[in-house]
Structure formats: structure tokens, C-alpha cells
Amino acid sequence: MSRQPEGAAVEDSFAGRCVLVVSTNYAPEHTGIGPYSTQIAEHLAASGADTHVLAGMPHYPAWEVAQGYRGRWRVRERRGGVTVHRRRHTVPPRQTAAHRALFEASILAHGVLAPPRIRPEVVLTQMPTLAGGVLGGRLARRAGAPHVVVVQDLMGAAAAQSGIRGGGRAAAAAGAVEARILRGATVVGVVHESFVQRVTAMGVPRSRVQVVPNWTHVQGPSGDREATRARLGWRPEETVLLHAGNMGLKQGLDVLVEAARLADQEAAPIRIVLMGDGNQRDRLQQLATGVSALTFLPPADADAFPEVLAAADVLAVTQKASVLDMSLPSKLTSYFMTGRPVIASVAAQGGTAQEVLRSGAGSVITPEDPKALLAEVCALAADPERAARIGACGPRYAEEHLSSRAGLDRITALLRLATAARGTGR
């Protein structure tokens, strides 16, 4: 299908119609799920839809409410042609099952007590929050509208696989709620095919499940790489391995701390950098006391982010060995744009490994194995031609498969499918 008819179909389907996007994460958050929800809503608004978003207060990845929103219960604002309805919720200082439950309950309670005063003709919910899924379904039913759910993370599996304290007990309850949400949706989109089997096992007919991969939401680097390295204090002779993004439990970032410790012991010219924020950052900094090969950076702003990624020599994506089919790191789409090789310290049978290998832009090593991680960094440093060859696959893969236009077209096609299904009584 050509792009011009696709765009025309979007306008024909949604111009003048009220669309509600439910997503706890939204701009100004510029990492994780927020950028995708923002681009979807703004794309629909630009297509002529009366677009509204029910969102939380900006808090990710720092897990701290952003300045300008603290102490406020409700906010209504216009951003990029979209009306955003924000509702206050708890922001847990630590990730435990109990804290997560309180987080979800506060989102649900405030959304039920103060829903947006609109009557949407279609509702799109971005999950990983269960509360968002419940609210989206409730608002869709109240309006007699189709409900589309896009699954970014599988929460029941996340509780079981991430290592969160009390997660084992919470997994069954979260999975039951999640299954109910997905079975009640008109159409379910999943960001990777590795999610399909688990979603259909919840009782969702395969005919209602569509694969809608995320896309690259950052521009490729355009600045002076050497100047960026100099500004960051990275020496020309050292190989920099960078992890960018959330520092949470499921990332299993201890492996990078221990790899840096080994680099110190071997006097290897390796610098490992953790850039970002998250509920594990303080613990990781304590763990890294005395490790000179490891440095921490605050999150980069949207403009600087691709330049910092490209200034590194190798990019890391890590997950705990138990993480299999519940999450696909959104950072991968940004990594591929840089032209730098990726090392994935993840389970070989999971969706993250599949995506890295499919792209040709990186290698997969045993998760939670600092020796293997350091060895792969050293191997790439010793063979710059191989590193360049692997890294060059990323931008090609992103251009062919991960363009924002293609991603947004997939989402709007999902909405059209849902409205058509509702029209036929499905």
C-alpha cells in the first residue's frame, strides 16, 4: 500500500471524530512509552481528529514528579494540538509489588472519580499499566466505542520475571486482570511477535491480535562526535560501552557494574557508562563504589540524546536472565539509529535477542555474565572493521522497518480495524 492512500485513509476515518488515548506516560517524558503515546496522539490530531489523552503526571524515568506538576491534582493542557487530561497518582520510591499495586490503584481511582468529560468514538490504551487498561475499557464501554489496546509490556509476566519483591505472589493477580482487559478489547496490538502466544493463551482470539512494532522516535546523530566525547570526558584511547535509559529491576544492570570491576582488575582501556535514571540508580551507585571504569550520567535531553549514543563505541541492552517474553526495550529503536554495534546481555529465546539478531546490528551474549560482556566489548574494540560493519546494519534496519511513518500507519490501521469490527458487531 502506498503512503499517500494510507494518509488519506487516516483523514477519512478520523477527521472530526473524537479519539481518546489512555497512557499513564506522555510528554514531556522523552524516554520509554511516553514518546510513542505522544506521537500517536499528535499524529491523530494532525489528521483532523479531536484528540484527547488521559495521562498521569510526568515522572519517568526518575520516578519523581516533574517540576511544574508537583502538588497538583488535575491538569488540563494543550500540547501539539492534543488536549491532555492529567490525573495525580502515587509515584513509588521503590519497586515492590505492594508499591506497584498502590501506584496502579491511585491511577485507577483518580481516573474513575474524574474521567475526561468527552464521548470518544474510539479509545486507544497503551499498556503497561493495568489501571490504564481498566480505565480505557471502562471509558470505551460507557461511550459505546471500540477499545484498542497496545501491549508494550505484559504485566503478569513482568511481575513473575522481573525480580520485583513480592512479584511471585502478584503475578497471578496481575495476569488475571490483564487477561480480562485484553479479552474485552476489540483489537489487541503487540509490539513484538514473541508476545502473541502469551496473549492468545489468555483467551484472546488470534484474529484480534495484530503485531505493531514500535518505531524509531529519535533522529540520527548529526553533531561532532569527537567534540561530544571531549565534553563528556571520554578519552580517545578508551572504548566506551554505554547503557542509556531506565535503571530498573528488569534491566539487571548489576552485570555492567561487575564488568567494570573486571575491567579495573585487568587494566583494560574500557569505560562503562550508565546514563539515565530509575529506581535502582542509587543502589547501583553504592554497588559501584571504588569502581573507576564505571561512570554515571544524568538523562540527556531529547536533542543531546542521539549525539551521546553515537559518541559511544558500543551500546548495551541488558535484562535479567528471567526476562523472556514480557518486554521489548524501547531503547533498541534509538540504538539502531546511531550506527554503533549493540551488545545484548539477554536471554537468547526472548524477543529482545530476536530483534537484535534480526537487525544484524549486534550480538547476543549470556545474560548476567560480566566476563562474557567484557570479552565481547574487548573483541569489538580489537576489530574496529567488524564493529563498523555490524553497527552499519542498524540504520539500514531502522530505515527499512522502523520509520515513524510506518509505525504510525500501523497504529491508525489498528484503529480502523477496530472501528470496522465494531461496525460489523464483532
If you had to describe this structure to a student in words, what would you say it looks like?
- The relative contact order is 0.12.
- It contains 16 helices and 14 strands.
- It is globular, with a radius of gyration of 21 Å.
- The strands form two sheets. An eight-stranded mixed β-sheet has the order 3-4-2-1-5-6-7-8, with helices on both faces.
- Helices cover 44% and strands 17% of the residues.
- The two termini are 26 Å apart.
- It folds into two domains: 234 residues, Glycogen Phosphorylase B (Rossmann fold, 3-Layer(aba) Sandwich); 177 residues, Rossmann fold.
- It is an alpha/beta fold.
- Helix 8 packs across helix 11.
Outline the secondary-structure elements.
Blueprint lengths: L2 H12 L3 E5 L11 H13 L3 E7 L17 E6 L2 E6 L9 H17 L8 E6 L2 H14 L3 E5 L3 H7 L5 H18 L2 E4 L5 H6 L7 E3 L13 H8 L6 E6 L9 H13 L3 E6 L5 H7 L6 E4 L7 H7 L2 E5 L12 H6 L5 E4 L5 H9 L2 E4 L4 H13 L1 H18 L2 H20 L3
Parallel strand pairs: 1-2, 1-5, 2-4, 5-6, 6-7, 7-8, 9-10, 9-12, 10-11, 12-13, 13-14
Antiparallel strand pairs: 3-4
Mean pLDDT over the full residue set: 90
Distance between the termini: 26 Å
- Strand order across the largest sheet: 3-4-2-1-5-6-7-8
The CATH architecture name of the largest domain reads 3-Layer(aba) Sandwich
The H-level CATH homologous superfamily of the largest domain, spelled out, is: Glycogen Phosphorylase B
Number of strands: 14
The largest sheet is: 8 strands, mixed
Number of helical segments with 4 or more residues: 16
User: Which class best fits the helix and strand makeup?
Assistant: alpha/beta
Do you know the CATH topology of the largest domain? Answer: Rossmann fold
Rg over C-alpha atoms, rounded to the nearest angstrom: 21 Å
Report the top-level CATH class of the largest domain. Answer: Alpha Beta
The ordered string of helix (H) and strand (E) elements is: HEHEEEHEHEHHEHEHEHEHEHEHEHEHHH
**Helix residue percentage:** 40-55%
- In the residues, how many domains can be counted? 2
Strand fraction:
15-25%
Regions with little confidence, pLDDT below 50 for 5+ residues: 1-11
